[in-house]
Each structure stands twice: as structure tokens, then as C-alpha cells.
Design a protein that fits this description.
Order of helices and strands: EEEEEEEEEHE
Oligomer: single chain
Strand content: 35-45%
Distance between the termini: 42 Å
Structural class: mainly beta
Number of helices: 1
Strand order of the largest sheet: 8-7-6-1-9-10
Length: 174
């Protein structure tokens, strides 16, 4: 990752059971020994974003059982961390989104080579449509990206988990 390489993260998530002090991990590509990589967690009312030793604690309010969408841009080219939190407007059958929060912080660009292991840690949270991008997501594209079931711009994808529908056979014991 060069100091002019961008990253973006997007996902839909819902806290199913809240416990004080629990770490609700959205993505983890971080090495605690070297302070390299990035991780995104929700802990006690804070969205904690650690990007190569730069810790950002953003106060956000979430309700248990509600679905939220998150777009985070690690915009190294413009030295900005951009965080956008959305919820679906109205009923679940609409693609319209309400922007709940928009936060922009200064970001110190970093350059890094080496292997880091990308992880999703378990917690009392549902998460789907996890995507890691090699370029930032412009605000005008957020609605399109967050409502995409299948990504057509695969040249920008590093990781994609497009939460596919489960098929349950009535005669299959699981």
C-alpha cells in the first residue's frame, strides 16, 4: 500500500444484542505488534477506526435491531478520513437512504509493504454486503454502492461478501 493508495470500506450491519464493553468488529486488517493496517470496531457508543496507529473515536448512536450502512473512505490522496453512516429511509423495500452522520478527519498518508491477515471477528452483530475497495466511494455513489447486490465494478474490489440468500431444503436436516 503506497502513500497515495486509497481504501474504502462499505457494509450493512445490525447490533443484535448490546453488551457494554463488547467489541463489535466490522473488519480487522491490523497487526497490534507493529501498528500496521486498519480495523473498524463499534465499542460503547464509539466507532473506533484505527488506521496505521492513527486512532479515530467517533461518537455515534445506534439502536439494537436496526440496520445501518457504513461507508468509510481512507482518502490518502487528499489526506482525509471520511465516515458516512446511513439508515434505510422508511420501510425496508426502498433503496432510499437517510444520512445520519458525516464526519471528516485529517488523515496522515502511510506507505506499507508486507502481509496482513484480513479478519472478521465474531460478536452479537449481523453484517452483510461487506466490501473493501481499492478506491474511495464518492458521496454521489453511496446509494448505488450500498444498494448493489452484485458489484459490476470488480476492478476496484479487494474483498466482497454479497450476503447471498440462504436456500433451505425442507427435507434436509442441518
Amino acid at each position: 500500500m503506497c502513500d497515495c493508495c486509497n481504501r474504502a470500506f462499505s457494509a450493512w450491519f445490525s447490533i443484535t444484542t448490546y453488551q457494554a464493553g463488547m467489541v463489535y468488529n466490522l473488519i480487522n486488517n491490523y497487526d497490534n505488534l507493529t501498528n500496521k493496517g486498519y480495523k473498524i470496531d463499534f465499542v460503547d457508543g464509539n466507532l473506533n477506526i484505527n488506521f496505521y496507529g492513527q486512532l479515530y473515536q467517533i461518537d455515534i448512536s445506534l439502536s439494537v435491531g436496526k440496520w445501518y450502512a457504513l461507508v468509510i473512505n481512507f482518502n490518502q490522496k487528499q489526506s482525509k478520513l471520511e465516515v458516512y453512516l446511513y439508515k434505510r429511509k422508511g420501510l425496508c423495500n426502498t433503496n432510499e437512504l437517510d444520512l445520519l452522520d458525516e464526519i471528516i478527519h485529517p488523515l496522515v498518508p502511510v506507505e506499507y509493504t508486507g502481509d496482513l491477515t484480513l479478519k472478521l471477528m465474531g460478536s452479537y452483530m449481523s453484517i452483510t454486503n461487506i466490501r473493501l475497495w481499492s478506491e474511495i466511494i464518492m458521496k454521489s455513489e453511496h446509494s448505488k454502492v450500498l444498494s448493489q447486490y452484485v458489484v459490476k465494478e470488480t476492478e476496484y474490489l479487494i474483498l466482497s461478501d454479497s450476503g447471498s440468500k440462504s436456500i433451505i431444503a425442507p427435507h434436509w436436516k442441518y
